[in-house]
Write a structure and sequence with these properties.
The complex is a heterodimer of chains A (about 110) and B (about 120). Chain A has about 110 residues and is mainly beta. Chain A is about 0% helix and about 45% strand. In chain A, strands 1, 3, 4, 7, 8 and 9 form a six-stranded mixed β-sheet that branches. In chain A, strands 2-6-5 form a three-stranded antiparallel β-sheet, with no helix packed on it. In chain A, strand 3 and strand 4 form a beta hairpin. Chain A is globular. By secondary structure, chain B is mostly beta strands. Helices cover about 0% and strands about 55% of the residues of chain B. Chain B is built from no helices and eleven strands. In chain B, the strands form two sheets. In chain B, strands 2, 4, 5, 6, 9, 10 and 11 form a seven-stranded mixed β-sheet that branches. A four-stranded antiparallel β-sheet of chain B has the order 1-3-8-7, with no helix packed on it. The radius of gyration of chain B is 14 Å and the shape is globular. The relative contact order of chain B is 0.31. The chains are: A mainly beta (about 110), B mainly beta (about 120). At the A-B interface, strand 3 and strand 8 of A face strand 5 and strand 10 of B.
């Protein structure tokens, strides 16, 4: 089955930049989406269609795409950004798939 | 404001059944496709089912095909998930999530409910 691979964890100091990658063979042909999930809460959409930001999402969150890898960048990380982050896309048939998830720790 | 409120979770024995509900408000429910996504304790997110706005199209992940049925009642602004032949590995928080239609496609999971916990005891 199709998989989207993320690093299990990323650690970053406040004010620095965190980059979370997501790799999948179908990413050149399917859009990617990013979600943030804090403990005990539902996920929240951060990025859609690779790089678009929904209203209300801070500008420090941005998305990019290159080949089979998409990247979520958090610029000027804040303590409140400590959370789990998931990429999401679809396989070639359009079936939704989530990435393995990345835990971001703010040092 | 968009709101999605799930209910119906609980403790059930292996082999049993459960029906989850998700009540929507703050938007025209009949215009949007909907999904169920689950998250096992300490694990990642897993999409399990989709239903189109008009109910004509449904999809399931392989692990629940033949056991789970997604449905909706647009008159009641409600989404359902009938879960039969439950297994221990179905233990998870179940979220309903909306798909937003855009020209040329849709944006998945733009709003989520808070989830309902299903525990299957073996």
């Amino acid at each position: 089955s199709y998989e989207l691979t993320q690093p299990p964890s990323v650690s970053v100091s406040p004010g620095q930049t965190a980059r979370i990658t997501c790799s999948g063979d179908a990413l050149p042909k399917q859009y990617a989406y990013w979600y943030q999930q804090k403990p005990g809460q539902a996920p929240v959409m951060l990025i859609y269609k690779d790089r678009e930001r929904p209203s209300g999402i801070p500008e420090r969150f941005s998305g990019s795409s290159s080949g089979t890898t998409v990247t979520l960048t958090i610029s000027g990380v804040q303590a409140e950004d400590e959370a789990d982050y998931y990429c999401q896309s679809a396989d070639i048939s359009g079936t939704y798939v989530f990435g393995t998830g990345t835990k971001v720790t703010v040092l | 404001d968009v709101q999605l409120v799930e209910s119906g979770g609980g403790l059930v024995q292996s082999g049993g059944s459960l029906r989850l509900s998700c009540v929507a408000s703050g938007f025209t429910f009949s215009d949007y496709a909907m999904n169920w996504v689950r998250q096992a304790p300490g694990k990642g997110l897993e999409w399990i089912s989709y239903i189109s706005s008009s109910t004509t199209t449904t999809f399931y992940t392989d692990s629940v095909k033949g056991r789970f049925t997604i449905s909706r009642d647009n008159a009641k602004n409600s989404l359902y998930l009938q879960m039969n032949s439950l297994r221990a590995e179905d233990t998870a928080v179940y979220y309903c999530a909306r798909d937003r239609n855009i020209p040329g496609g849709r944006i998945p999971f733009d709003y989520w409910g808070q989830g309902t916990l299903v525990t299957v005891s073996s």
